[in-house]
Model the fold of this input.
Amino acid sequence: MAPEAAPVTEHGTTRTAWYHSLSNRLTLLLLAVVAVLAVATGILLWRGLAAVSVAPGTDLAGAAAAVAGGDQATVTAVLRSTLVNLAVVVAVTLLAAAAFSRALLVDPISRLTHASRALAAGDLAARVDLADRSELGELARSFDAMADNLAAAQGDLEARVVARTTELRALLSLSNTIALTTDLRPQIDAVLQQLVAGGRVAAAEIMELEPTGKLVRLARLGEQGAGAAHAPPNPGLEGSLSEIVPHAVVAGDQLALPLRARDRVVGVLTATAQAGSGWDEENLRWVGGLAAQAAVALENNRLYELARDEAAEDERRHLARELHDSVSQAIYSVVLTAHAAERHLEEDVEAVRRGLAGVIELSEAALAEMRALIFELRPEALAEVGLMGALHRQLDGLELRHELRAVRRLGQEPDMPFTTKQVVLRVAQEALHNVVKHASATTVTVSARHENQVLHLEVADDGVGFDTQVAYPGHLGLTSMHERITALGGTLSISSTLGVGTSVNVRVPYEPEVARDEQTTGTAS
Done:
C-alpha cells in the first residue's frame, strides 16, 4: 500500500501531520515510559502494603506504623519482592522504549548514512526506500528523488558525450577527406553524406558562389519531406541564432546557411530537417560545423586552381623568356648567316662554306637549347635519367648556349623520393639561371653528394658576386628557392663575395624510397 501524500503548504513545501512528527513521537514515548513506571510503582506498593496487613484507606503515618510493628521477616520479603518486580518493570519498559526508538530513529538514520556513502562513492543506484511518513521519511524520499535525478542526468550526459564523440569522429573523417583529396566533388559529397547520415537532416544541398554572383548547385542529397517548412517556431532560439550560426536563416524545417571562408562568402548550404522537428541549438551547431568544412573545401579548391593557374603561367613566362633569350636569337643568327652566305654564293665559295658551318653550329646550339627546354617541361625525363643525369644535361645545355665552362662533381644517384628530386632539380635550375643572368661568370661548378640520407648540393660561380644583406625587390627566385627547400625540411644558404663569386649550398634530408614503400605497405596491411 502506497503511503499517503503529505499535505503541501501555500509555499510549496510539505507539512508533516502532528502525529507523524518525530519530535511529537519522542515526547509521547517519554510520557508513556513515565506513565508505565508510575502505574507499575503504584501497583507494586499497593500489593506490598496489602501483604503486611495495612487496611485500605490508612494514611501514610498509619501505614508506616503498621509496617514497623509487623513481622520483620515478612516486611523484608515484601520489600524484596516489590523491588524485584519494580526492576523487571523498569527493564521491560526501557527495552520497549529502546526498540521503539531504534525503529523510529536509528534504523532510518543508518539507512540514510549507508545510501549517502554509496552515492558519494559513485553508486547511482543507491536508494533509501523508507516508507515512514515522519521528517526522516521525507528526507529519505528527497534523497531518493535526488539520486533519481542524478542518475537521469548522468544518463543524459553520457548520451550527449556519445553523440558528441560521434560528431567529432565524423568531423575528423571529413577533415581527412578534405585534406587528402584535391577533387572538389568527393569532398562535397562527403559533407552531404555526414549531414544526412546523422538522421537530423532529411535533405541538404550545397551551392557555390561564382565571381559573377550566381549560385551554382554542386550537389544535393536526400528528399525534402511533404511536411517541410511547417515546424512550429522555436522562441528560445531566435535570440541566440546569430551566436550559434551567424547569418543563418531558419524558416520552419528549412535552414539556409552561408559558407564563409576568410570573411568571404564562397557558397550556401541549405538543409531540411526531419518533418516537423525544426531546428534546435544542438542541430544548428552540428550543421554549422559541417558547413565550415564545406567552406574550407570550396576555398581550398579555389586556392588549388589559382595555384595551378599561377604555376602554369610561371612555366609559360619561363618558357617564353628562355625562347626569347636563346632559341629565338639563335634562329635569328641562323637567318642572318644564311643570308650572308647567299650573297657570297657566286663570289666566294670559301666564305659560303664558313657561313654554312656557322649555320650548322648555330642550328646545333638551338637544337640543344630546345632539347633542354623540352627536358625542363617533361617531368618523366627526370625519372628516366635520374637527378644526376638531369644535372649533367642542364650543364651540357649551359655550355652550348652560354659558352660557360661547367665543372661537374656529381656523385651516385641518391635513393630519394621522386618529388624531392623534382624540387632539388628546380632549385638547381634556378641557381644556374641566376649564374647566366646576373653573375657574368666564366666557370660554374656543381657538386652533389649524399651521405646518411642527406643530399648536399652546391652551385658555385666565379662571377661578380653580390651583397647578400641587401634586398632586391622584384627578384623572387631566391625567395622561391628558400621556400621550396624549407618545405622539404632542408636548408639553403647563400654566400657571396663581390668580385670573387657566389655559392649556393643546399642541404636536404630524405627518406629512402625502399623504407617509404615498406612503411606504406605496413600501413595499408
Remarks:
- The domain at 402-525 is CATH 3.30.565.10 (Heat Shock Protein 90).
- Strands lie at 201-209, 215-222, 249-251, 254-261, 264-273, 405-410, 443-451, 454-461, 491-497, 501-509.
